[in-house]
Design a protein that fits this description.
alpha/beta, Rossmann fold, 2 domains, eight-stranded mixed β-sheet, 10 helices, 21% strand
Length: 224
């Protein structure tokens, strides 16, 4: 994407009502006004709150919002030029139960209050295979603690990935730390009984992976 295109998207994001862009200082000094008040102040209802972390173009967030109009969805990514597409689609199609935040996922507990979130989706994250990158792996022990702090006691986490490494790493960690694995599947399109919500929404990259015959894996779990 050219720099002119990026700038254009950043400017458009500034005008979108469904895009929230808090500064790092605003978050870490607890001055972010929507923390603890997402349903009350933004969505103006009491529906379950669902996050997509590393939402990319926002395809999954928008797809879930269409499928579940009785839930509120927030896509989170640091790259606003990417989720511009999802935000624009939501506005064009009048989908009011989805929003996007431009922020680092490491700061997640500064944007949401304790037990404010019902469910988390992590879709096709970078597996960070190199050992030195493990601290950025989105299902490592530190990230799971962050998620637990904002999830309701019975809150759910979903991991959908084309990386068999990420799938195996996460399953091993979940079992090793005593978390509850509700469902795990190493090839959701080839095994009958895969949850419909997992197979009915496909991102642009997911379609490319499928064309390459890469298996798509899925884990649904609770953090204990």
């Amino acid at each position: 994407m050219g720099s002119k295109n990026k700038l254009k998207r950043f400017k458009e994001n500034d005008t979108f009502e469904n895009v929230i862009q808090p500064s790092r200082d605003e978050l870490i000094t607890n001055e972010f006004s929507l923390k603890g008040k997402w349903n009350e102040s933004y969505f103006k209802n009491n529906n379950p709150l669902v996050l997509e972390l590393g939402c990319g173009k926002g395809e999954y967030s928008v797809g879930l919002a269409k499928k579940f109009p009785d839930k509120n969805f927030i896509g989170i990514d640091i790259k606003g030029a990417r989720f511009w597409r999802g935000a624009k689609t939501a506005i064009e199609e009048g989908i009011n139960n989805v929003a996007f935040i431009r922020m680092q996922i490491e700061l997640i507990e500064y944007a949401f209050d304790k037990e404010e979130v019902d469910e988390i989706w992590i879709t096709f994250p970078d597996p960070q295979i190199k050992y030195k990158r493990t601290k950025h792996r989105m299902t490592n022990a530190d990230f799971l603690k962050r998620y637990k702090s904002i999830l309701k006691p019975e809150g759910i986490v979903n991991l959908k990935t084309d990386s068999e490494f990420m799938h195996g790493y996460t399953l091993g960690l979940l079992h090793g730390e005593g978390h509850e694995v509700i469902y795990a599947n190493h090839d959701v399109y080839k095994n009958e009984g895969s949850p419909e919500v997992v197979t009915s929404i496909q991102t642009f990259y997911e379609q490319q992976y499928l064309e390459q015959n890469k298996p798509i894996t899925y884990i649904r779990f609770k953090i204990r």
